[in-house]
Design brief:
- It contains 24 helices and nine strands.
- It has 575 residues and is of the alpha/beta class.
- The protein has helices at residues 19-34, 36-69, 94-107, 120-126, 136-139, 151-156, 164-171, 180-195, 216-225, 251-256, 269-285, 291-297, 332-352, 372-379, 393-402, 410-416, 425-431, 442-445, 451-463, 467-480, 485-492, 505-508, 512-533, 537-561, and strands at residues 81-87, 201-208, 243-248, 300-306, 359-360, 363-364, 382-385, 405-408, 435-437.
- Helix 2 (36-69) crosses helix 15 (393-402), helix 9 (216-225) packs across helix 12 (291-297) and helix 13 runs parallel beside helix 14.
- Helix content is 50%, strand content 7%.
């Protein structure tokens, strides 16, 4: 949507770097990450951070525990936790979903749900299904060994009984009943969040916009804003949820869509981008002409880019979106750039009109090429997954320095790509990266009705986390979220923007000693990097070694001078 020719116009409110500049910078990032000296330095610094955390916990763990016990009137369950990464189609637990479908089959069996006029009861009967099949096992939605390293099998789990029509009836917006069942199921999930059953939590659920048609935004807006009936009447909005729009990377499907083999030659990636962004640019510029989409945008806080990162893709080139017409998937980083560039322009436009803006929070580093994380480092505010950072220490250190958020899902990874015993979450957390826990797809991966609490419980047991640890992880989830500033002040403290040491201990349940430890080490790493960049690294490191030696000698002298009269020991003459 943003055209390069606009860069010469003086009235532009923003000019983003073009694809040539991005590819040049991306290639430079690849060179930096491949450099041996860079890898050695980053590995050393990360090991130092690891050791510093272990020493801190050993020396101050009991102090943190005591500090937490003195924070009266609060505990982990009362502090706010945000599920930053959850896909709406799988937001309900398997138990909730089975119960909901059973209720509809019993009470609304005569409702027409298919284009051919078939009722809900007829759909089940034609498939050879009865009420006795309404069990979690028969639905076959829970992930198992068959989905490991198989994204295709994983996607099929969204269809109960492996029947696409059941998925369309209950988990889609575009159907004969205008997504009514999906809306009622969603509102059941939202109601549980609002009731704060078990603990205090909120969510940032993903809605899909595919870019296949220009009217997708209008259909989605009408679905969200409709005043639905049911047990929880009203629009699909909640005080405990903010929407994120996920854009699946489905170029190949878009390219092949339509009749005739020649259709793909008339379609370009630019067409898909325009389907994604033109409606929301128009709603921003002319809200009176597009009131429904304009209203929906007020409830959206970010964009996500989703799909299997392991699929074959073209090399990253400087091709313009309007020239990309072949069937091969464009490079992950190339697609991310075009999403980012348009979001940047859109945000500046919305800022000028005093409207809310959007963060870019794509899936990255779940599988596939670890250098996908270089593109997300350059473009994203935070990412989902990021387990492949374990394989790229240079990027891992950069993510630490800039505190790029990582919303990780160990239970999801365990079934799909990374067994929990080898998940890098505890390593990244101990080193001080900005990590938090999220559920991804409760319908497929979780057994309880409270998927987020289950995620925290499993992580605490599997990774040997303390209560201070999981409180810190919960605080990170609020910092990464797109909830309004007023709510963050309520959950973190009035001065949270000044840094983590200014977060309110009582609200976050994170003792000040832990916050100071994190802030001090991050500041020291930044100072070290800046000194090295200024060419003063060697001199400063030598001076630090001298002072460390003096401190060690002073420590030793205190011990020797105060040593009581005891029998000699072999090492004494070596001091």
């Amino acid at each position: 949507v943003y055209d390069e020719s606009d860069a010469s116009h003086k009235h532009n409110i923003i000019a983003v770097p073009n694809i040539d500049a991005f590819v040049k910078d991306y290639k430079r990032m690849e060179e930096i990450c491949a450099d041996g000296a860079m890898r050695s330095f980053c590995f050393q610094r990360l090991q130092m951070l690891d050791s510093a955390f272990k020493m801190h916990v050993t020396a101050n763990g009991h102090v943190e525990n005591e500090a937490q016990s003195n924070l009266l009137g609060t505990d982990f369950y009362r502090t706010m936790k945000i599920d930053n990464h959850i896909h709406l189609a799988a937001a309900a637990s398997a138990k909730q979903f089975v119960s909901f479908v059973g209720g509809k089959l019993e009470k609304e069996g005569d409702t027409v749900v298919m284009e051919n006029g078939h009722t809900l009861q007829e759909v089940f009967s034609n498939a050879g299904l009865s009420a006795d099949h309404l069990t979690i096992d028969a639905f076959n939605v829970l992930a198992d060994y068959s989905v490991y390293q198989r994204f295709d099998n994983f996607n099929s789990k969204y269809s109960p009984f492996r029947l696409a029509q059941i998925r369309k009836i209950f988990l889609k917006v575009d159907n004969v009943i205008d997504g009514r069942y999906f809306a009622e199921l969603t509102k059941t999930v939202l109601a549980r969040l609002e009731q704060s059953k078990g603990h205090n939590s909120a969510a940032e659920m993903r809605l899909s916009i595919y870019g296949m048609e220009r009217n997708e935004w209008l259909h989605l807006a009408r679905w969200v804003l409709t005043d639905w009936d049911g047990d929880y009447p009203g629009p699909v909005l909640s005080t405990h949820n903010r929407w994120i729009v996920q854009v699946p990377r489905l170029w190949r499907i878009y390219c092949m869509k339509g009749e005739g083999k020649g259709v793909s030659q008339t379609r370009s990636f630019q067409d898909m981008i325009e389907n994604l962004f033109v409606p929301i640019f128009e709603a921003t510029l002319y809200p009176d002409k597009h009131p429904e989409v304009a209203e929906l945008l007020k409830h959206i806080v970010g964009f996500d880019s989703v799909d299997d990162e392991g699929t074959a893709e073209a090399p990253c080139t400087c091709a313009r979106a309007s020239n990309w017409k072949n069937e091969q998937n464009p490079a992950y980083c190339w697609q991310l750039y075009y999403l980012w560039a348009n979001i940047e322009v859109l945000n500046e436009l919305r800022k000028s009109k005093r409207l809310n803006t959007f963060a870019f929070r794509p899936h990255a580093g779940e599988t596939g090429d670890a250098m996908h994380l270089a593109a997300s480092y350059m473009l994203a505010d935070s990412i989902n997954h990021g387990v492949n950072l374990e394989n790229q220490v240079s990027l891992q250190y950069l993510y630490y320095l800039d505190q790029i958020g990582l919303s990780m899902s160990p239970l999801s990874n365990n079934f799909l790509f990374r067994k929990i015993k080898s998940n890098p979450f505890p390593k990244l957390f101990k080193r001080g990266l900005n990590v938090t826990l999220s559920t991804d797809d409760p319908l497929l991966f979780h057994m309880s009705d409270d998927a987020l609490l289950e995620e925290y419980s499993v992580a605490r047991a599997s990774f040997d986390l303390s209560m201070t640890d999981i409180s810190e992880i919960a605080r990170n989830s609020v910092l990464q979220s797109g909830f309004e500033d007023e709510l963050k002040k309520e959950w973190l403290g009035e001065d949270y923007k000044r840094g983590i040491t200014f977060c309110d201990e009582v609200k976050t349940h994170v003792p000040l000693i832990r916050a100071k430890f994190r802030a001090e080490h991050l500041a020291l790493e930044h100072m070290l990097v800046n000194l090295i960049g200024a060419g003063k690294g060697d001199a400063v490191l030598k001076e630090m070694m001298v002072h460390f030696g003096l401190a060690r000698d002073a420590h030793r002298n205190i011990l020797v001078n105060n040593l009581p009269d005891v029998g000699p020991f072999p090492e004494q003459n070596q001091l």
